[in-house]
Amino acid sequence: MTEPAKKLIDENGLRVDGRRLDELRPISIEVGVLDKADGSAYIAHGKNRIMAAVYGPREAHPKHIALPDRAVIKCRYHMAPFSVEERKSPAPSRRELELSKVIREALEPSIMSEFYPRTSIDIFIEVLQSDGGSRCAGITAASLALADAGIPLREIVAACAAGKADGKVVLDLSDTEDKLGEADLPVAFMPRSNSVSLIQMDGSLSEDEFNQALDMAIAACKKINALQVEALKRKYVSVKEQVEEKGEPKEASN
Ligand code: ADP
How many CB atoms lie within 10 A of CB 94? Predict the structure, then answer.
């Protein structure tokens, strides 16, 4: 985070992409988009384009990683080489390894892993295009891919960042705001238990700004959760229609 070199908020209080301070970027979500994985979801969140896929629960390999009382949850967050302006090496960077760990930790409390001892649940997040907030959009999609795989969840996890740009607390930072702004606060939230499963902070905020950003991020997670529920319902309505029309569901919903 550096001092802003260009104006991120104009005299009308609008941001570089025309949003108000507390406005989310456009979000669209689709569940069950891949045939081969057990569960999948795709999210377009602003210019982020992210695919999440889940396998499992399946026998844990290698066997020594198996846990006697619950499933092992594995997670890989990966950015495609073409997801950013300059080709990124396909090899996992330190950032991707760190994000894989924090995303797993954000999703773990929602998964009833105790039902599946000695198995593993594998979560893959593939960022096809990245525009700031990709860990949050990845969590939002991965939680739906887990539900689509039929894995029992306590609740669905939604995630969104808030932060600070040009001295103002703002919601859902774009790549430009993330790079030129003063702070970024990604939050993952579980709405039924009203609990936060991920919070990270980069940059600096006063206590008041922190509380304002956290409230803003949680309110946005609740809105994103409503979109997640709609996307899941669309998937099941389409499966029901296929069963009624043809007697059996197609392999994928689209
Ligand atoms: P998040 O995507 O969760 O906000 P970061 O704050 O680490 O994670 O990254 C912010 C943004 O920086 C990313 O969304 C992406 O647009 C950009 N970025 C990350 N890694 C690279 C990279 N290797 N090359 C170019 N841009 C990157």
Answer: 7
